[in-house]
């Protein structure tokens, strides 16, 4: 499995002011979207999000989003190595995704476009 990029998740109280800061920091415009009851913005390697406490807390429990060539192959490799599937592969606005809990307890989202 090859990881193409890593997106760091950042929960923020004020999405609009955070977007301004992170756009200036990265020099890249933000792409805004909504998913699962959250408001999100992606700029550079950062995925900023805000929303209702119960949804945001669950989303914040994922350490990072990792881009991979094929989510299904990654899930199979992860399971074979001892990972637990938290969310099975499914289509989302950002591509096909799955969430795995690694044997050490870390939770990561894997996405392929």
Description:
This protein has 113 residues and is an alpha+beta fold. Helices cover 27% and strands 43% of the residues. It contains three helices and eight strands. Strands 2-3-4-1-5-8-7-6 form an eight-stranded mixed sheet. A hairpin with a 2-residue loop joins strand 3 (38-43) and strand 4. The longest helix is centred in the first third of the chain and has 12 residues, at 15-26. The protein is globular, with a radius of gyration of 14 Å. 23% of the residues are buried. The model has no long low-confidence stretch (mean pLDDT 94).
Could you give a short description of this structure?
Helices cover 27% and strands 43% of the residues.
User: Sheet with the most strands?
Assistant: 8 strands, mixed
Shape: globular
The SSE string, one letter per element, is EHEEEHEHEEE
Distance between the termini: 15 Å
Please, what is the oligomeric state? single chain
Our Rg estimate from Cα atoms comes to 14 Å
Spans of at least 5 consecutive residues with low confidence: none
Helix content: 25-40%
Structural class: alpha+beta
Name the average pLDDT.
Answer: 94
Q: How much β-strand is present in the residues?
A: 35-45%
Question: Which strand order spans the largest sheet, edge to edge or round the barrel?
Answer: 2-3-4-1-5-8-7-6
Q: List the total number of helices.
A: 3
What's the total number of strands? 8
